[in-house]
Amino acid sequence: MNNQDYMKRYAFIAALAALSAGTAAYAQQPAGAPEGGISPEMLAEISKGYEGDADDKAIRNALALTPIGTLAINAENAAMIDTHFSDRVRTKGITDQKSSGRCWLFTGLNVLRAKMIDKYELPGMEFSQNCLFFYDQLEKSNLFLQGIIDTKELPFDDRKVDWLFSNPLSDGGQFTGVSNLITKYGLVPAEAMPETYQSDNTSQMATLLKLKLREDGLALREAYESWAATTSGMSSRKKAIAMENLERQLQDMKVQQLSEIYRMLALCLGEPVKEFEWTRCDKDNNVVSRKTYTPKSFYDEFIGEDLENNYVMIMNDPCREYGKVYEIDYDRHVYDGHNWLYVNLPVERIKEMAIASIKDNVAMYFSCDVAKFYSRSKGVLDLANFDYESLMGVSFGMDKKERVQTHASGSSHAMTLIAVDVCPETGKPVKWMVENSWGPASGYKGCLIMTDEWFDEYMFRLVVEKKYVPADVLKMLEQEPVQLPAWDPMFAPEE
What we know:
It contains 17 helices and 14 strands. The protein is of the alpha+beta class. It has 3 domains: 47 residues, no CATH class; 189 residues, Cysteine proteinases (Cathepsin B, Chain A); 155 residues, Cathepsin B, Chain A (Alpha-Beta Complex). The strands form 2 sheets. Strands 1, 4, 5, 6, 7, 8, 9, 10, 11, 12, 13 and 14 form a 12-stranded mixed beta sheet that branches. The longest helix has 34 residues.
């Protein structure tokens, strides 16, 4: 369609604006009807947005039988993007999270396995996602139940209490969980505790776990309410003693509740391995060593870095002030861990750190809004992939800040950032590539390629080793973090 066609479509907007001051079109309202509803006169004016001409009918006919995404494909951008990258991290193999929300876990472990494969010249290897997932679900269950205990004196309709019961458990997460869990429990190779049907397909298990946890949470609150009723007339001294007894009772209840959660997890995922034998081979599959390990000794020998302190989470959140440090309540997987801090920075500064890491052959935890402008056939994320405006005859004009503010966009998926193509003339990035966890047949050879323009609009989180973070950014970490509530949009778990 040409500009004249668009002008015809938008003409009714101007008409509505002219009528907004109470002109004749709005004068006739049904008796007793509140202002602000759609009157017959308003409906007549609004309906002019669809003219029913030949163009409109052709689009309507197409939409009746065809997905919107198919019709919106931009034919002028049909060619496959150049797959050359100036700098790329050495990796081997593509993982597959199947029908689960464990992208955060696969991504974090993929960052570590790339290091291990390169350092020890392995033919390939994969860490057990299932083993850490078991502990993740157990720890999150404890985080919820202890949260219910901590908020026992708040009313049931308090926003924090409501949030806890709305979010007792999920299989989503972020790098906080990776660092918390590995630090506490260690790592094992995939063959020591392989995937099960339930780890690959988490929805039914999750439904039952959440149902049980909500029931348990209610039981904890009811125990407190019963205590409060029986101690209302006590002296402050006797009440303090009674409170100590209550706290012990609630902790005993929690232990019993968690034992049932443990049983459910063990039935679905198997019990976490405590000791295992692993054979290390070189790139030619020659045996180098064969030893017995615990999860902690395996991690100490082959990775051994301080995940809690060696990494910095960088965000690009245009809704908040840059150069500030933020912390989100309950933004952790382990109750006795800590909420992960993030530094909010402009996207250009984030790119500088990302390029430095890639050039040094170090992959990074990366998260974005992956569903936006994603071409599945090409495995490419490009703002020019789809032309929804031409198809619908309307404009979509929100910027990144506005999309976040209105919940139209946010971090939804984690992947491993492994490559960048830097223009030799300008020194600026042209495109990026991430290793995904949707299997080798997905995307471009199991990876996704994104243009730099897409990166600007839909990248949100990057976790970078401190050695690639400039001194002034590290200095920002000394700030007292701004505390954000658990329901902040930036909390949303990546899946």
